[in-house]
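Appendix C. Worked example: Homoserine dehydrogenase
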Amino acid sequence: MSPVKVGLLGFGVVGGGTFKVLAQNAEEIARRAGRKIEVVAVGALNVDTVRELVGDNVLVTSDAYEVVRHPEVDIVVELIGGDTIARELVNEAIARGKHVVTANKALLAKHGNEIFAAAHDKGLMVAFEAAVAGGIPIVKAIREGLTANRIQWLAGIINGTTNYILSEMRFKGLSFNEALADAQRLGYAEADPTFDIEGVDAAHKLSLLASLAFGIPVQFSKVHIEGITGLAKEDIAHAERLGYRIKLLGITRRCDQGIELRVHPTLIPVERLLSSVEGAMNAVQVNGDMVGPTLYYGQGAGELPTASAVVADLVDVTRLLLADPGHRVPHLAFQPGAMADTPILSMDDVISSYYLRLRVDDRPGVLADLARVLANHQISIGSMFQEPHGPADADIIFLSHEAREGNVNRALEEIQALPFVKSHVTRLRVESLL
Ligand SMILES: NC(=O)C1=CN([C@@H]2O[C@H](COP(=O)(O)OP(=O)(O)OC[C@H]3O[C@@H](n4cnc5c(N)ncnc54)[C@H](O)[C@@H]3O)[C@@H](O)[C@H]2O)C=CC1
Ligand SMILES: N[C@@H](CC=O)C(=O)O
Ligand code: NA
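Step 2, the predicted output written as structure tokens:
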């Protein structure tokens, strides 16, 4: 059979990695796909360097549209990133009847609904395994492996950069900025690393995971997002003392009233597997009503792990080229006509336990006043400790039992206004699902 012909857009960390994987494992991949997969065109800005790497038989051009419009290209692989030119190129590829593979979660989180609908109308595939948790085959696991289940919730470490930063700070004592610079050097970070550290990248991925898990449209704008930039070293230390480790988690859960969709630093009990996931590794726990808990672990970022997922998608698309469109796996796991309009819950309705830290005047009555405000808002204290700070102040750390977030918000407003409270009240959520 004639080879399947691929056009690569972008030859950076993942684009370069994809070319390498296709070359290095060409024979093994062809045995699996049933046909050879051949890169025939590359769109790149650094044309001369890329030409040296890919050889004379591949068209290398700085005009990405030339790749998309190339008559021989069957599959367009978009690895440029962002949601401007990448969006135009993907739309153009679909309009021209070409299948698409992309690692671009920013694009799909914002424009996935429109892109998947256009592809569906044309009977085309838009494969995106690399877009969520890099090399871990989590899209395939949810979309295919767990189809017998009503998925109840999933929670995961789905940003390698932030997990790497937290680990390096903890183990090597690096500063936040040093650890971030390392993550950038290693190819983990987004072109704009604020997407990583502010939780936006994790939110992009979570919105895709929620669609795959619950059969709802992609709703990035409804994700509650908090990153790791507000985390203080002392919170990491206090959490350890209480038996927890702090990780940036993406969590989505189906409740009676709707679906929770949130990304924030979270205290995880140290005995849970997710708390030991370090460096750029990712891990996602998915709970289905039939299978129970399942856990997926692997490299969530970096050249070859991400390229591994891109190439797996290329093999999938190659295998499915001959299947008629009606019998292919749906983009978002559920048939397009069977999507649900379950609402996304307001953060106020989320139930969680909380870690609270505040600095107060160290004098009689302070603890009683704090406990009264919490009790007035139906927040019960699970444990508490106090550390002196200088001659007249103390830091108080509470762990609450489960409470409604709206109640916690109101209690915190009141506590913040108390005359003896001398710091901003830090609030972190504690995960009890895991
Ligand atoms: N680096 C990683 O670990 C992972 C990255 N991703 C995603 O993969 C995509 C690519 O990321 P990276 O390879 O890390 O980025 P990168 O910045 O290393 O590569 C992007 C490449 O696209 C090129 N480019 C920009 N505009 C172009 C244009 N008009 N025509 C042709 N080339 C153009 C740039 O010169 C650059 O070489 C992004 O969507 C990213 O979110 C997904 C999972 C992991
Ligand atoms: N910047 C991302 C790359 C993979 O998606 C991350 O750090 O996880
Ligand atoms: Na993946």
